[in-house]
């Protein structure tokens, strides 16, 4: 049996993420949490609960000297989903918030189609090109889908003066392109986890801003 030394900094990063996830769940507006009406699917709650579970998996994974192989695989799968799910789920939640302000034509089928494609396509390519020498191909697909989601977030934020959304778009772009290089240069492997925590803080304020906009427009 091979034992590895537990990574205290990585455990601490996941602990911070767990705390931020719990705090964010408490801050959710009523229309975005698990007590929402059936017509409003709580995508933001799903995202925050998923990130909370991911952080707990990370704590168990990196605190144990010899984590089980299934735990390693489950954490790796969860880590992959953290790169694919956040923006599509947030954008879908924002559409549901602003939906009454759109034209009478329902875009729900397109929105749900976008949600599925933006997650399933990179996820599938990640399995197809899982070998080390081909992993960059799946990385290109993931980056492309994230850029599409960033454009959608920017468009929605500009359309409804959601400054938190614009701030999130800028910060996520930095997280997508600058953070990996910064982490590699200075050997700080846990920056991505802290980046997820900052994403949650921005995202919860984006949703709160959207809820306030609905109140100002008299939408219930």
From TrEMBL:
Keywords: Membrane, Transmembrane, Transmembrane helix. InterPro entries: DUF4791. This is Putative conserved plasma membrane protein. The keyword Lipid biosynthesis does not apply. The keyword GTP-binding does not apply. Pfam families: DUF4791. The chain crosses the membrane at residues 41-62, 74-91, 111-132, 139-157, 191-208.
């Amino acid at each position: 049996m091979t034992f590895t030394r537990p990574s205290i900094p990585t455990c601490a990063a996941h602990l911070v993420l767990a705390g931020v996830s719990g705090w964010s769940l408490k801050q959710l507006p009523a229309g975005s949490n698990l007590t929402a009406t059936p017509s409003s699917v709580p995508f933001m709650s799903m995202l925050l609960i998923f990130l909370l579970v991911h952080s707990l998996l990370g704590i168990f994974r990196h605190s144990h000297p010899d984590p089980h192989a299934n735990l390693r695989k489950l954490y790796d799968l969860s880590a992959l989903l953290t790169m694919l799910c956040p923006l599509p789920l947030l954008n879908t939640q924002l559409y549901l918030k602003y939906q009454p302000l759109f034209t009478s034509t329902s875009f729900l089928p397109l929105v749900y189609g976008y949600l599925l494609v933006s997650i399933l396509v990179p996820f599938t390519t990640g399995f197809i090109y899982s070998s080390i020498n081909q992993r960059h191909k799946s990385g290109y697909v993931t980056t492309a889908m994230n850029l599409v989601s960033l454009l959608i977030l920017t468009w929605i934020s500009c359309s409804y003066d959601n400054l938190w959304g614009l701030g999130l778009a800028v910060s996520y772009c930095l997280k997508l392109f600058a953070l990996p290089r910064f982490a590699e240069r200075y050997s700080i492997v846990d920056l991505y986890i802290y980046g997820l925590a900052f994403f949650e803080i921005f995202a919860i304020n984006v949703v709160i801003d959207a809820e306030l906009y609905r109140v100002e427009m008299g939408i219930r």
